[in-house]
Specification:
This protein is of the alpha+beta class. It folds into three domains: about 160 residues, no CATH class; about 50 residues, no CATH class; about 70 residues, no CATH class. About 50% of the residues lie in helices and about 10% in strands. The chain has eleven helices and six strands. It has a six-stranded antiparallel beta sheet. Helix 5 packs antiparallel against helix 6 and helix 9 packs across helix 10. Keywords: Membrane, Transmembrane, Transmembrane helix. It comes from hydrothermal vent metagenome. InterPro entries: HPP (IPR007065), TM_HPP (IPR058581).
Length: about 300
């Protein structure tokens, strides 16, 4: 029975569970995002219904708040996908008299345009479709639909996503604002543990499919997978002064520590490190422990991207 259950999950592509804190953050983010879009748009336009908020913004909210680090969630995908799709949708409504043909063309052409502009954003398809089969309120807007509500809604959800995700140290939007990235801790002397990004990009081109990860993400994923497979536990010898480490936990327990001092000793009980918490749980606190104890805490090494070392 257990085998068939696992097989069913595999067939259905059920993803591994995330922490409760991550689920709560996503839920709260979706609420805040749509609430602010509705409130602010009404304040500026006084409109109602679909002229106030594009239904596809609900799908955009899922992306920017539930998967803020995803490739399809990033700003270029968000703005480019929504705006280009809106233009395509309105154009199809005006140029194609048959509503069924116009609806199909709107979504199909929106996908094509997003592909060419490299801004695939799934909610864009709904934005294009709404311009064709939407209410008389939407049709009356004409190309103004692109600016209000689409552009206005997109700006609001973008600003909200940037601000909201900044309150959770393990997530940022856009992903380029993450203060720490995984350190290239693989050993370049062992080619089997390192896959150059150019080969990943070529492999992605061979697959010829859009996936919600870029080459850098995949390179990091492969490196970490191989590293965990070969060296699943950090040793005390790998803990060095002025390095950054994380416990790799999810949600509120996530933490990043910076080794700021050490007392080196051949005796493991006296070989001490002093660290400061620079991100996540226990932020700005400092403490000390043996190098061995610290190694047991470590999940992986990081390096700062937007932080001055101190």
């Amino acid at each position: 029975m257990n085998y068939f259950f696992k097989k069913l999950l595999e067939i259905l592509s059920v993803d591994s569970s995330v922490s409760s804190a991550e689920k709560l953050a996503s839920t709260l983010g979706g609420f805040v995002g749509i609430f602010l879009i509705s409130s602010i748009s009404f304040y500026f336009t006084g409109a109602s219904g679909a002229a106030l908020i594009v239904p596809s913004m609900g799908a955009s909210a899922v992306l920017v708040f539930a998967v803020p680090h995803g490739k399809l969630s990033q700003p270029w995908a968000l703005f480019g996908g929504q705006l280009s799709s809106a233009i395509v949708g309105v154009s199809c409504y005006y140029l194609v008299p048959n509503v069924f043909l116009a609806a199909g063309l709107a979504v199909g052409l929106a996908i094509g345009v997003m592909h060419f502009l490299r801004c695939i954003h799934p909610p864009g398809g709904a934005t294009a479709l709404a311009a064709v089969i939407g209410s008389t309120q939407i049709h009356a807007l004409g190309y103004e639909y692109v600016l209000t509500p689409v552009f206005l809604n997109t700006v609001i959800i973008f600003v909200t996503a940037v601000a909201f995700n900044s309150f959770f140290p393990w997530r940022r939007y856009p992903v380029s604002l993450m203060r720490f990235a995984d350190a290239p801790s693989f050993d370049v002397k062992k080619p089997s543990r390192f896959i150059d990004k150019q080969y990943i990009e070529r492999a992605l081109a061979d697959i010829d499919l859009v996936i919600d990860l870029n080459a850098d993400d995949l390179q990091r994923l492969f490196a970490l997978t191989l590293e965990h497979a070969e060296t699943p536990i950090f040793s005390a010898a790998q803990i060095e002064l002025d390095r950054y480490y994380t416990n790799s936990k999810h949600g509120a327990e996530w933490s990043v520590r910076h080794i700021i001092d050490e007392a080196v000793s051949d005796d493991p009980k006296k070989d001490m490190v002093i660290y400061r918490v620079v991100e996540g749980h226990g932020l700005k606190s400092a403490d000390s422990c043996t190098r061995t104890e610290f190694a047991r805490w470590v999940g992986r090494e990081l390096f700062p991207t937007h932080l001055e070392k101190s």
